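Quick one:
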Amino acid sequence: MKLPIRVSEESREPIYHQIEMQLKALIVGGHLAPGTPLPSIRVLASELECSVITSRRAYQNLENSGYIKTVQGKGTFVRALEELQKEETKQKVVYDAFEKAIEQGRQVGCTKDDLSTIFTDVLNRKFDSQ
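Output:
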């Protein structure tokens, strides 16, 4: 199973963190159901063209946080999450994305009003097209 994860060498975020956050989003968004098998650390590293150490770190962090579980000799699987954990993660993923977008907007000289207008336009476009 090839995961829809993209990593960016240009990002200031470490690659393991990019992998971790995208997997969290896929899990809490319901795109990866509980019990879904995940690629091995080596396969994931190969697919994303990163080191095995990087993919291992992402998986270890996700396992320590309770998002995935590794069964010796069988593989790594998505764990069932409690609703509160899902909601908290959704909030954090979106909050972090907004923070990054605002930071980028400020770097290019956008004002608070500019960002608000852009946000409203994008929000309306995304929801009106559904």
